[in-house]
Amino acid sequence: ELPESWADMQEPLLEGMCFTLKYLGMTLVEKPKGEDMAAAAICRIVATARVGARKFQKVILTVSPRGISLQDADTKEMVENISIYRISYCTTDKLQNKVFAYVAQSQESGALECHAFLSPKKKIAQAVTLTVAQAFQMALDLWEAAHAGR
């Protein structure tokens, strides 16, 4: 359960807010943002995930104004670190409402990738999405503050 003043809690976000999710997979996308693009990408990821019999990797997704970091929940090994500046979109799917997804530009290939995660509850998927949106705003505020004196 999220507190009412949750949207105003900036302090914890600077350090990073953690969420434990299951990584469903990734698919390439054509556009950097858009609800229809994301819904279609999530649909592809979920369909592929259902076909495979493998167990989903449990990850700790940490959101901060620097971006998103993914850590294996069991081994604590760093999986990926995605700069906030490479993320172009994030959403909670309308149909698969426990699924959180983001679109980011791959550092290696430059391709746009949509990554999807399954959360235990709809509220958690929404909380991740809101936290990423808040991190974007905070990163922008920090950037503007840093460049204000120039």
Q: Mind explaining what this structure looks like?
A:
The structure is a single chain. The chain has helices at 11-15, 35-51, 122-147; strands at residues 17-29, 57-64, 67-72, 78-83, 87-92, 99-105, 112-118. By secondary structure, it is an alpha+beta fold. A 7-stranded antiparallel sheet has the order 4-3-2-1-7-6-5. A hairpin with a 2-residue loop joins strand 2 and strand 3. The longest helix is centred in the C-terminal third of the chain and has 26 residues, at 122-147.
What's the short version?
Helix content is 32%, strand content 35%. The protein has 150 residues and is α+β, with helices and mostly antiparallel strands.
Q: What key phrases describe this protein's structure?
A:
7 strands; single chain; alpha+beta; globular; 150 residues; 35% strand
Q: What is the element string, with H for helices and E for strands? A: HEHEEEEEEH
The proportion of residues in beta strands is: 35-45%
Computed Rg:
15 Å
> Could you say which structural class the secondary elements and strand pairing correspond to?
alpha+beta
- Terminal CA distance reads 43 Å
User: What shape does the CA trace take?
Assistant: globular
Number of strands: 7
Largest sheet strand order: 4-3-2-1-7-6-5
